[in-house]
Amino acid sequence: xxxxxxxxxxxxxxxxxxxxxxxxxxxxxxxxxxxxxxxxxxxxxxxxxxxxxxxxxxxxxxxxxxxxxxxxxxxxxxxxxxxxxxxxxxxxxxxxxxxxxxxxxxxxxxxxxxxxxxxxxxxxxxxxxxxxxxxxxxxxxxxxxxxxxxxxxxxxxxxxxxxxxxxxxxxxxxxxxxxxxxxxxxxxxxxxxxxxxxxxxxxxxxxxxxxxxxxxxxxxxxxxxxxxxxxxxxxxxxxxxxxxxxxxxxxxxxxxxxxxxxxxxxxxxxxxxxxxxxxxxxxxxxxxxxxxxxxxxxxxxxxxxxxxxxxxxxxxxxxxxxxxxxxxxxxxxxxxxxxxxxxxxxxxxxxxxxxxxxxxxxxxxxxxxxxxxxxxxxxxxxxxxxxxxxxxxxxxxxxxxxxxxxxxxxxxxxxxxxxxxxxxxxxxxxxxxxxxxxxxxxxxxxxxxxxxxxxxxxxxxxxxxxxxxxxxxxx
Length: 475
Fold this sequence. Notes:
elongated
């Protein structure tokens, strides 16, 4: 294959454009185009730079076939995997053949310990599965949430299964298979015949390659190694939580950036976010380096650590100064005015409040034998309706649009109020309240009926029932 074809195939395999390759080599795009068309040929300096970029030899680049070489490398990789599996099987057979009784007992006990440690390592997976399932099954779980919970459990159990198999194989490899060495062994003398003569008068020793298990690792060393792997596993779990926290902090930081586009730039939370994200990334890098047995740059790590701590402290202080300067108001802002729907009924002796936990009473003796029922609400998407069920139970129900519980105007109103150093809790924005107004006598009758409707089955002692009724009427 020609050089021009090799260059074109290598560039496309790396997903590099002609402009990008020209920039890497310090030439123009037209030069790269001429090389690929065969109109010109690069200098030796450019050829060696191409070899560095595409990770190939000069001979393959100029004279060889890069696609065929890539295919041969893939085949070598496949054959090397097969060879490593075959070698592991041979070493396992040699391991079992060379073990005496005591070594076999220790081997079985060690496998039992390895399995026990791997089972203990499932505890973090169980905790993680339960914590996520608690989120999925929180409140009224629908079919989608149950399917997500089942999918999460399946993926987590699959991850643990893969981890258990890989951990078991790797520990056995380090503990045993790496101790099986290929050595020269001399077999018993064998007789060789010369041509057709049956007299066996010459004996020679034949050297053969043989796998031998070298049991030179003490139990203490093995437990130390096992503990180091367990420590790395714990670091892996911490790394998983750290990455989840990092994603959460990044999402919150993006929200802060979006707020700045709305005109609300919070310097304290912004610096705090940068410090926390930097610290979380540093922890993730250190954990990865520890798990991969790689040496970290201590000076850079210390500088990053102290920088993140300083930014976090300054951001936290500014955040506290900002939020303590806000005026906290319990309720909804003036934009959301209280609305009332009312109904007036003729008083009946059996009137009872069906939903008495969210009901308040007011006395107005001018109403006479009338009962006025008011329902207060703030949110426009709520449409409360008052009902009189079976001419006895006073109740109300609310029609609401769940898709508009947190509309855009509420978010804009929060940002507007924060700019004015005000923070409304919005506690009563989505609440409804029923107020029953009647004369003092009629209010007492309604409350008494309501108490008997809810608590008669729970009160066996008449004295205690009467005492509870008086407390209910009073409060």
